[in-house]
Design goal:
globular; Arc Repressor Mutant, subunit A; about 475 residues; Four Helix Bundle (Hemerythrin (Met), subunit A)
Length: about 475
């Protein structure tokens, strides 16, 4: 009989390091995220948290991967608070859904939900300072500056300002690297040139209905285009190999990668992720050691190490030390993606009203899709979450979050399910009074919502979820 495997000594240390990192994150949030402020030296952190040097160093590595803090060397050094980059967070989400091979249908259900909401809110809130920017973006259609992002900015809702760029990155990941601004064809390009200014003018005029209609029409056209692109990609992969592929260094120096904004380490990270995708995302495979990859990419060690930090933050790959070590492909963790998004929104200090504005749109769409898909074969996840909510030993707020997440997963839309998890967790953090007050009465409401979803009653499911979210709204 085989003896049960024992956890490696690194496993409990890693878990303790994650706990220490979370405590430091909480301290940073409580202090108002003071960028540039020192949290403490390595010795002070060891003393404060009562852990070993190895645990503190691993916790610091976690914080550096998340771009929450970084170690500053020399006199007056220590762990210093950083401003996390929204683009890196968005890239982490895009990497996860690239790995999960999210469908075009899932993507456009999520985009339609959020971009229609953004169009309506922008038409209601757009200010003088936003109008010129929105018109300029609509007139100068560029891959690196999509109109959807400009509309999200005009809503003045920071949640939309991070979620919508995230979805544009997922779109880009599905379509491939933008070469020549994506070839649309003369007819499609002409329709797009007319559609974008028309959307902008509907928003500027404050006509919410017209703005929504035009955004939906544009998204329908984009979805049809992306379907064609994906078909062409499948046909290309099916062809017999022709000329030898460009080296990584040639791709990095070529016009396609060169046209993408960002610093060199970000471009290296993108190229490595594409190479991983091309190889079929072989989890556990070693791509090469630092020396060989620096030589293959023709970049310095400093550039490569910064790219590795981005890949590690995105959960795409990590460096393994020792014999047989190197850059190892890994599967992105959805829990880590949720944590990264929630943490970035905490950094932005989003208002509870902004959270619930987006949360309502996302959860209503998710529950609508879930009810429409009834009957469901596997409901154990939802039933277990409902059961935990009735357990007196379970924290009521966390149990309620699990119920909302389980309902969203029944939609079979991984984007909406992930956004639901982020927004429900953020609601728990930002409005503990409301989110923590889940009682037997609220558990009964969740049971009724679940009944409507499992019965396939779309209208009743939306009605009950809408009333429930209004009761939770701060």
């Amino acid at each position: 009989m085989t003896a049960p495997s024992q956890p490696s000594p690194a496993a409990p240390r890693r878990k303790l390091a994650e706990h220490v990192a979370r405590r430091i994150e909480d301290e940073i949030v409580e202090r108002g995220w003071p960028v540039g402020a020192a949290i403490g030296s390595e010795a002070r952190l060891i003393e404060r948290y009562g852990v070993s040097r190895a645990v503190v160093r691993e916790a610091i590595s976690i914080l550096e991967y998340k771009q929450v803090a970084a170690m500053r060397r020399g006199r007056g050094g220590g762990l210093v608070v950083r401003a996390p980059a929204g683009a890196v967070v968005a890239e982490a989400v895009a990497a996860f859904f690239h790995f999960a091979d999210v469908s075009v249908g899932e993507l456009y259900e999520a985009r339609s939900t959020l971009e229609v909401l953004a169009a309506r809110l922008a038409a209601r809130r757009i200010g003088e300072e936003d109008i010129a920017h929105l018109r300029a973006v609509a007139a100068d259609d560029r891959v690196d500056r999509p109109l959807s992002v400009a509309i999200a900015q005009a809503t003045h809702n920071p949640v939309l300002s991070i979620f919508i760029p995230t979805l544009t990155r997922v779109t880009g990941a599905l379509a491939g690297v933008p070469a020549d601004g994506y070839r649309l064809g003369e007819k499609a390009a002409g329709a797009r040139r007319r559609a974008l200014p028309a959307i902008a003018e509907a928003i500027v005029s404050g006509d919410e209905v017209k703005a929504e209609r035009r955004v939906r029409s544009q998204l329908d056209g984009e979805r049809a285009w992306l379907d064609r692109v994906r078909e062409a990609q499948a046909a290309e992969r099916a062809r017999p190999p022709g000329e030898p592929a460009e080296s990584l260094a040639e791709q990095l120096a070529g016009p396609v990668i060169g046209a993408i904004g960002g610093k060199l380490p970000e471009k290296v990270a993108l190229l490595v992720r594409q190479e991983i995708r091309r190889r079929g995302w072989p989890t556990g495979e070693v791509l090469g050691n630092e020396a060989s990859l620096c030589e293959e990419l023709e970049v310095s060690r400093a550039v490569f190490r910064e790219a590795v930090r981005i890949l590690e933050h995105n959960g795409v790959a990590r460096m393994r030390q020792g014999p047989g070590g190197g850059l190892v492909v890994q599967a992105p963790d959805p829990a880590r993606v949720v944590d990264a998004l929630a943490l970035y929104l905490r950094y932005l200090q989003v208002e509870p009203g902004d959270v619930f504005e987006v949360r309502t749109a996302v959860e209503l769409k998710a529950v609508e899709l879930a009810a429409a898909l009834a009957p469901h074969g596997d409901t154990a996840d939802l039933k277990a979450a409902l059961g935990r909510e009735l357990d007196p030993a379970a924290p009521p707020a966390a149990a309620a979050v699990e119920v909302h997440a389980a309902l969203a997963r029944l939609s079979r839309n991984r984007l909406l399910a992930l956004f639901t998890a982020v927004l429900a967790e953020l609601s728990l953090i930002r409005v503990p009074g409301e989110a923590g007050a889940e009682s037997a009465a609220e558990a009964a409401v969740h049971e009724k919502i679940a009944d409507a979803v499992l019965a396939g009653d779309v209208s009743l499911a939306r009605h009950r979820m809408s009333r429930h979210l209004r009761a939770l709204e701060p």
